[in-house]
Amino acid sequence: MLRIAVPNKGSLSAPAAEILSEAGYRQRRDSRELVLADPGNDVEFFFLRPRDIAVYVGSGTVDVGITGRDLLLDSGAAAVEHRPLGFARSTFRFAAPAGEITSLEQVAGKRVATSYDVLVGDYLAAHGVDAEVVHLDGAVESSVQLGIADLVADVVETGSTLRAAGLATFGEPILRSEAVLIRHDGGAEVPAGLSVLDRRLQGVLVARQYVLMDYDVRVTDVEAAVAITPGLESPTVSPLHNGEWVAVRAMVRREDTNRVMDSLYDVGARAILTTSIHACRI
Ligand SMILES: Nc1ncnc2c1ncn2[C@@H]1O[C@H](COP(=O)(O)OP(=O)(O)OP(=O)(O)O)[C@@H](O)[C@H]1O
Ligand SMILES: O=P(O)(O)OC[C@H]1O[C@H](OP(=O)(O)OP(=O)(O)O)[C@H](O)[C@@H]1O
Ligand SMILES: [Mg+2]
Description:
By secondary structure, this protein is of the alpha/beta class.
């Protein structure tokens, strides 16, 4: 039975439950449940603090987990990223009172407040900057106003928390993070059952990223049309009762939907229909 660690709280928790549910797994009804067996799918879920998940996976007590890339790197655990999951996207950045610190070199000798000591310490060391790291559990943005730090290094999504605290980002992002599926860093050894979980999650991600497009086109225009919708392998072309026309079906990236429909119309395609994909295996 594959043991899967899932975030029990915070930004990762709801979207992690959603992707697992879309992938056909049971999910807990009560947020106080700590363990949930799903014998039908031969897996068991452990609901843990997001920051602890890499530690459990690294120790081998659970096989795989869902956490943030930033939390994985900060943990220093013997766990590796297996697949990015496309949600809880954020950047991890330095910020200081607007105009006061504007480059990484100016961080030398300053106090940096963060909840991600290892990530920040490693980054400063890699860039040869000697600064003091002040550990805080959260609400890091308040530390400068309260006088215990000169700048912060924290998760930024919209930037509104920073702005509200009168802070502005500077320098390159330290990291671009998102939720990731992680596994133990056991070299070539991959936990039994991971490939099924992985394929299912990939199926959900593809179903979210793509739509199915159907259209009719004259045989004379089919090459121009399929060049616009090459699909994953190759589009399906089916005969129509009117032999001068064919029906074409192909997967298209969701974000390209309207642009592709316009281009198809321009080369003579008609009855262009787009439908969502519920689930898939690529
Ligand atoms: N506003 C946000 N947008 C996107 N991702 C976020 C945001 N805040 C935190 N994250 C991501 O969530 C993970 C942090 O987990 P954490 O447990 O700290 O969640 P949280 O949302 O900060 O909850 P809490 O602070 O209430 O425990 C990290 O991977 C981080 O990048
Ligand atoms: O750029 P934004 O869209 O404003 O989002 C970023 C904020 O969201 C998270 O805070 P959270 O609410 O989890 O509080 P915390 O600092 O206590 O973790 C994160 O730590 C930032 O503070
Ligand atoms: Mg937080």
